[in-house]
Amino acid sequence: MNALFMRGARVACCVLVLPFRDSMAQTGAYPNNATTCEQCHSVPSNFGSSQLTVQRAGRWENRRYVPVVEGGIVHRHGDSTQGKILEKGIVGERVSVNLLGDGFIEAIADADLRRIADEQRVGKTGIAGILAEAPVLESNSASETRLGRFGWKNQHSSLMSASADSLRNELGIRNQLYPDEYASHNPSDGPTPFDQAGPKTERTELERLVEEIRHTAPIPRDEQLSASSDARVGEKLFSEIGCALCHVSTYKTLPPGTLINGGQYRVPDFIGGKTIHPYSDFLLHDVGTGDNIPQAAKPEYLDPLTANEFRTAPLWGLRFRSWMMHDGKSVTYHQAIERHGGEASRVRDRYERLAPVQKGQLQAFLNSL
Hints:
Layout: E1 4-7, E2 12-15, H1 21-27, E3 53-61, E4 64-67, E5 73-74, E6 90-95, H2 102-106, H3 110-123, E7 133-135, E8 145-147, H4 159-169, H5 205-214, H6 223-226, H7 229-240, E9 251-252, E10 259-260, E11 265-266, E12 275-276, E13 284-285, E14 310-311, H8 333-338, H9 345-352, H10 356-367
Antiparallel strand pairs: 1-2, 3-4, 3-5, 3-6, 7-8, 9-12, 10-11, 13-14
Helix pairs in contact: 4-5, 7-10
């Protein structure tokens, strides 16, 4: 496999080009959603977000969720589940998430996330995020877990695990962490492509992809707008009405040299000990928008209690998105906030009581992110 890497002034961007994928997409032999990463992660640059969504599908049987056979996804191309979702099945949308800066998120200490969860409960505000234990698939121990922080359901705790999932279930390529064929695969079609180490680099595309993501920088705030008086007041309102309880602004990453992910990854100097501002608690919350579909890195980790909960979306880079919430169906900040119910009902109510000028100041702050 070949890859073309492009670097910009601020972020390292990857265009993962897999030459054999074009013919596969045309024949429809192998289920996939795209042939390159940037087809779903392109705003404001490669590895960013997009308005494209992935459909998750399945059904409930005896209080147990059963996803459709192909990774729980309804694929755009070559999907043998198309038109075969059982009666009473459930389909939900998941908007493509931003990956820029995810290397820093990977280096947030589990202890920091546990502390935030504890503080939410002590505060008795009605907000109580759930910590999700997720497997470290690349670990030498099958039982190794870490707090999840990637994916709409926090189903992954490491970038290697999350990227391997995407390589398999989005691009249709089996790999060292997801080596199996789908149960629906027709052997007469031949084997699905497998991510092998290149003869020259001795590295797989999965390894190269993860390294590139880890080298991306978070999208910085708009300096001019963030310095405006409206944005500064809006930031205070953001905290006062309770948005900051879940959209936590600031973390410091683990020190350089710290071993994480079951000892498989050492936090490098360019990531370790850095102050970041993702505006998320990386916890699962029920804010009234659930679709009754749980997700997990592997079927044995499916937790039915998370069916209507979603990870708090990080807000860095928000100004580049006109699609919000897990399904991308909110196209303005106002719409997104108004959809917040459940745990966030009190916060939404306080927002509704703001004067029009205050709502404009809050919007100015969000526009600076």
